[in-house]
Amino acid sequence: MEGSNINQPLLDQLPKTLQNVDSRRRRLRRLKSAPMPEFVPGEMNDIKDDQSLSRYESILDKLHPSFRKVILYLVIYLTIGTTCFYFVQNQIHGKKVNGVLDSVYFCVVTMTTVGYGDLVPNSATAKLLASFFVFSGMALVGMVLSKGADYLVEKQETLLIKALHMRDKVGPSVILEEIETNKVRYKCFVITATLVVLIVVGTVFLAEVEKLSTIDAFYCVCSTITTLGYGDKSFSTKAGRIFAIFWILTSTLCLAQFFLYVAEFNTERKQKELVQWVLSRKMTNVDLEVADLDNDRVVGAAEFVVYKLKEMGKISQDDVSLLLDEFECLDVDQSGTLSTTDLSLAQSS
Fold it and tell me: What does the alpha-carbon distance between residue 239 and residue 237 come to, in Å, rounded to a whole number?
């Protein structure tokens, strides 16, 4: 207590400017992110909070909205496609096993652009239908099914992190922090493991059911998931085509997501390297001049943060200009600060 009483006069003798600077630093460090808006677009569904963990756990009871959309669009596409190809099945040549099954199988092979050639449209009507469904199928895979696959991968990612921390007995906040920190890395791990499983399952199935050699089975799997589809090896039995309907769609989509996550991981790695370089680089007088937004020959904390974010590529000059324009519109009295009076006047006008 005596020590604090002795130091208090020394603190009172500090220049008021230093005290103001210290208070500003505390305010900046205490600054929290803005609250989320009431309306959140569908693309923002990947933002996680504590409720998202319970949502992942109840997937069997209540499907995620984006996943329900995937199922709906896929069912509509397959129903319309199967119906159309069923009515023109006599105009499709090749090895057939069942009318409805062949129609669904041909629809999936067309949508995923595998195109074995074991079933081929042989009339103008069938060719026009195939042309329409290949474009609409590619759009469906690119815009809708990939989002559903991304959601499933994130669910598996969460389960993986929970399993890794099972013995640590950590809370949901730690799990969420781990997800956000190594999100892309865990995605790559999960999708790679899933892809390996699909390749093994496809190879074993072709070898056991379609009676192909191990080399031919693996060759058929590779030509299928890469949508190369030479056509010399394919699913020709009834059981094989039932399996192919689900396996082809899953494996081709999984490979596409794998390349997407690898590219995302590479981009994130380069971004982290840039951030590390920016943080380790020494500031120069030229940097101070560039960072001085208001040209008062001193750089405040806010100006320093903005400059560093621009260096890291987090924001651009256009972003800063847009925000400054909005600030000037809200600053009705042109005082350089925002108050409740400014907001009231700006909203009333």
Answer: 6
| 237-255 confidence digits (pLDDT tens) | 999 999 999 999 889 888 8
Stated pTM of the model = 0.64
Among 222, 239, 220, 240, residue whose Cα is nearest residue 231: 220
Residue 60 has pLDDT above 80, yes or no: no
Contact indicator for 112, 136 with CB cutoff of 8 Å: no
* List of residues 6+ apart from 257 with CB closer than 8 A: 146, 149, 150, 153, 191
Name the burial class of residue 160, with classes exposed (0-12), middle (13-18) and buried (19+) by CB atoms within 10 angstroms of its CB.
middle
Helix (H) or strand (E) run with residue 6 in it: helix 2-12
The angle at the Cα of 36, spanning 330 to 333, to the nearest 5 degrees, equals: 10
What are 5's two structure tokens? 């009483």
Helix (H) or strand (E) holding 249: helix 238-280
Helix (H, G, I), strand (E, B) or coil at 311: helix
Q: Is 239 helix (H, G, I), strand (E, B) or coil?
A: helix
pLDDT at 64: 58
Of the candidates 207, 199, 165, the one whose C-alpha atom is nearest the C-alpha of residue 182 is 165
Contact yes or no for 314/278 (Cβ under 8 A): no
Fill in the DSSP letter of residue 144: I
What whole-number distance in Å separates Cα of residue 305 and Cα of residue 295? 16
How far, in Å, CA of 244 to CA of 132, rounded? 22
Q: Any idea what DSSP says for residue 70?
A: H
**More confidently predicted of 285 and 203:** 203
CA angle 99, 104, 105 (to 5 degrees): 95
